[in-house]
Amino acid sequence: MSDYKALQEAVLKGDIKTALEQTQKAIDAKDVARDVLDNGLIPAMDEMGDRFAKGVAFVPQMLRAAKTMQECVKLLQPLFAEGDITSKGKVLIGTVKGDLHDIGKNLVAMMLEGAGFTIVDIGVDVSPDKFVEKVKETNPDIVGMSALLSTTMPAMPETIEALKTAGLRDNIKIMIGGAPVTEKYATQIEADSYASDAGSAVAKAKELLGIS
User: Contact at 8 Å (CB) between 156 and 103?
Assistant: First the structure.
């Protein structure tokens, strides 16, 4: 098996060209695609999440690293055997009704995808009814809701109520986040978890599903 240090470094730097060269090198060396993902790409994104949580990396670096990983995964895609990629879980994510902000949500989605979760991104300004409809349609493990405005935060408990009414609440975990959102608010509206940033969202999602 190849040493993936150079690949990890390239992902952390957001150096797409070098990362793709290193991925191709691993492919040429007949490495198993799953190994490249598990030992090269995912640890790099875990490290980026740690750096972000510690305040030594910022949103632009995180976006570049996630983009670099996505490009490498595209290169590996044809080599994955049937059932080779086992998703850690499915996350349905959206910004709540009345809120059009998507940078935070997109970053959380990228980080979760980088960590091996399947993402269903339903966009911005998502009504409680739309959340309900999409939960029925996609059967996720976690529903992630984001709000960047304090004025749109009430849409979060409204969505939770709508999921309860539809009889779906007990089958899913609910994680919320966004600048004005707090741990206290999450407890108050009976969400299962609160993530303060994209790096911690990955740790919280794993925690919710009891995986390492």
Answer: no
d(CA 209, CA 212) in angstroms, rounded, equals 9
Q: Rounded to the nearest 5°, which phi and psi values hold at 108? A: -60, -45
What is the pLDDT, as a whole number, of residue 80? 76
Q: Cβ contacts of residue 168 below 8 Å, gap of 6+?
A: 132, 135, 136
132 to 46, 52, 139: CA distances (angstroms): 31, 32, 10
Distance from the first to the final alpha carbon of the chain: 23
**5-79 maps to CATH 1.10.1240.10:** yes
Provide the phi-psi class of 87: left if phi over 0, else alpha when psi is between -120 and 50, else beta: beta
The pLDDT of 133-156, averaged and rounded, is: 97
Q: State the number of CA atoms in the 13 A half-sphere of 51 facing the CB.
A: 17
What CA–CA distance (Å, rounded) separates 165 from 47? 40
pTM: 0.77
Residues of the chain with CATH 3.40.50.280: 90-209
Tokens 């998703």 -> residue: 87
The mean-pLDDT minimum among 11-20, 41-50, 118-127, 162-171 falls in 41-50
The CATH class that applies to domain 90-209 reads: alpha beta
CB of 30 closer than 8 Å to CB of 40: no
Tell me the mean pLDDT in the region 94-117.
89
- 162 vs 93: CA distance, rounded Å: 16
Burial grade of 104 (CB within 10 A; 0-12, 13-18, 19 or more)? buried
